[in-house]
Design goal:
Number of strands: 22
Structural class: mainly beta
Distance between the termini: 60 Å
Number of helices: 2
Strand content: over 45%
Radius of gyration: 28 Å
Length: 353
Amino acid sequence: MQRIRCGRVFIVCLLGMLPAMAARADQVALKNGDRLTGSIVKKHDANLTILTDRMGEVIVPWDQIDSITSDQPLYVVPVAGPKLYGTLAQTADKIEVRTSGATQALSPADITAIRNEAEEQAFQRLENPGWLQLWTGTGTVGLAGTSGNAQTLTFTSGINADRKTRTDKTSLYFSFIKASARVGGLSEDTAEAVRGGLRYQRDVHPRLFLSAFNDYEYDRFQDLDLRFVIGGGLGYHAYKTDRSQLDLLAGVAYNRSSYSTPEIREAGELYWGNEYSLKLSDATALVQSYRMFHNLTQTGEYRMDFNLGLSTKLLQWLSWNISISDRYQSDPADGRKTNDFLYTTGLGITFAN
């Protein structure tokens, strides 16, 4: 009997605690009367992000918040003074940060950032990273072929990698295609091209950045032994959200192209273009870049580079990638076409450190 009574008492206590446990959550009340309950993720710039159970991640303007309280400790960065770590409580027009040692009242305008534990770790990781840290990207291999009346074989590979911090971005890219065909006992290569390069940009203002790049290209069927291009200029962050970003760029470049004809062309160039990225879903992302190069040495001549990539994550480490690369030159080598279009698809391995 004693055990039964103890068991009943335990169940009653547990049921009595459930409402209190459910109530333990961060609360955000808006000036229009709406109320959000969940976990505060971060305050960045002029917005607050809160993760709710029913609506997922919700972003609200900071100046539309009427009151805010948190059950979990948060990192709070004031305009002046050291970073604080504690829970939040609203009192009149002030936000109290209750740390383990004291309580500090701040006005909403005095708070520049709020971060939960995960966001703070991500922030600290970007503070002073080593050169080999923060790289993310994919390596792709594709293979296609036929047999029978005609034997064909196409091999493609590519690498795309980025290293992003809060103030700069470094990008590496490489693509390779080789195709051959055998018909009637005769074998012949039908495509062979290599493209690669390095790009770097650094913010000098929330909207403006400096950029530099170095591109290399080989195309056997354009008679192009090596195109070496180096350049730099200014960029403008025209549009930026958590899911998409559009950058506009312009600058000058030096182009040295050596052909197997043989011919060597050297020219100064003026370029302009854009870079765009879009996160279509949690698993799929699209990236696009465009450059128009105007020849300053032989005015009237120009060339164009266009790249488009789509990556869908199949597993944590495995992705399916599509890559499109178009190169146009108004004055190609004698007897060659002005346009070369390259597209590849295949499975890729995703890496990050």
